[in-house]
Amino acid sequence: MTVNDAVAKRISDLLKEKKMSQYRLEQNSGIQHGSMQCIMNGRNKTVTLSTIMLLARGFEMTLVEFLNDDLFSSDELEIE
């Protein structure tokens, strides 16, 4: 799994956990729909720290809380 895949999976998991729509996340974070679609569909190969910070804010959590998941600590995570 790549870092980008892990970010998309984390977004999906948090959307379900918080019972939030992707549209609401886009509105809360300021990330455009097309950009979010690229992240979620795996077309975006370079999710930046700035984007992850916006996502965390959109979920009303800190960056550390967003990244505090086993997805990001796996030895099998591919860092491109």
Q: Any chance you could write out the topology, listing elements then pairs?
A:
Elements: H1 3-17, H2 22-29, H3 33-40, H4 49-58, H5 63-67
Number of helices: 5
Give the biggest sheet: none
What percent of residues are in strands?
under 5%
First-residue to last-residue Cα separation: 11 Å
Number of strands: 0
What is Rg?
Answer: 12 Å
Order of helices and strands: HHHHH
Task: List unreliable stretches of 5+ residues.
Answer: none
What is the helix fraction of residues, given as a range? 55-70%
Q: Overall pLDDT, averaged? A: 93
Oligomeric state of shown chains: single chain
Shape: globular
- Structural category is mainly alpha
Would you mind describing this structure in some detail?
With 80 residues, this protein is mainly alpha-helical. The chain is built from 5 helices and no strands. It has helices at residues 3-17, 22-29, 33-40, 49-58, 63-67.
